[in-house]
Amino acid sequence: MQTTISPERKARLDALAYDYAAQPKERVTHCNLCHGTVLVTLTHRDRYGFPAPASACARCGLVFLDPRMTAPAYGRFYDGIYRPLVSAFHGRVIDAQTIQGEQREYAADRAAMIRPFVRTAGLRTMLDIGGSTGVVAGHFAKEFALDGTVIDPAPLEVEQARTFGLETITGLVEEYDFGPRCFDFVIIC
């Protein structure tokens, strides 16, 4: 499938002058989820038109970028490029404040979908990977009486997540050492 980007959208993206191809990258040798080693390339460009190949694990189906940017490159990306890039893509401002309305609706929809499976499960702790501003984790924590933790690489978004009373971690889940810590419920939205 070829990604087609309108001339107007391309102009907005080009105005950011972000050179994805020049960012340091590393190959993925195994799946982060199941450690499978048979990886299948699905596409060669992302929705922004960047040369970002997506691969899938043939064992569990997890989809991820391969090669992926290094942790320091992702840190820089989420610290100053990500929200302007998303805003340029959609043609409107999408930042840590404006996204919260959409996230509240999304959180309510997801909670309704999983409610029958979570209500009586006896869960206490939750980890939201890539939890952004914490709206989803905050809603889930309240709805299901969970102690919520958000890990996200974007400092401004993690700062917002703290306002929901969540534990926050600024970083990439692939790079963070949780030690012996476990979570009863993990979400990736």
How big a fraction of the residues is strand?
15-25%
Low-confidence stretches: none
- Give the radius of gyration: 18 Å
CATH class of the largest domain: Alpha Beta
Question: How many discrete domains?
Answer: 2
First-last Cα distance: 24 Å
Architecture overview:
With 189 residues, the chain is α/β, with parallel strands linked by helices. It folds into two domains: 7-90, no CATH class; 100-187, Vaccinia Virus protein VP39 (Rossmann fold), CATH 3.40.50. The chain is 35% helix and 18% strand. It contains five helices and nine strands. The chain has helices spanning 7-15, 71-90, 100-118, 135-144, 155-162, and strands at 25-26, 39-43, 54-57, 63-65, 68-69, 125-129, 147-152, 167-170, 185-187. The chain has a four-stranded parallel sheet, with helices on one face. A three-stranded antiparallel sheet has the order 2-3-4, with no helix packed on it. The protein has a two-stranded antiparallel sheet with strand order 1-5. A hairpin with a 5-residue loop joins strand 3 and strand 4 (63-65). Helix 1 crosses helix 2 and helix 3 (100-118) packs parallel to helix 4 (135-144). The longest helix is centred in the middle third of the chain and has 20 residues, at 71-90. The protein is globular. It starts with 6 loop residues before the first helix and ends with a strand. The model has no long low-confidence stretch (mean pLDDT 92).
Layout of SSEs?
Blueprint: H1 7-15, E1 25-26, E2 39-43, E3 54-57, E4 63-65, E5 68-69, H2 71-90, H3 100-118, E6 125-129, H4 135-144, E7 147-152, H5 155-162, E8 167-170, E9 185-187
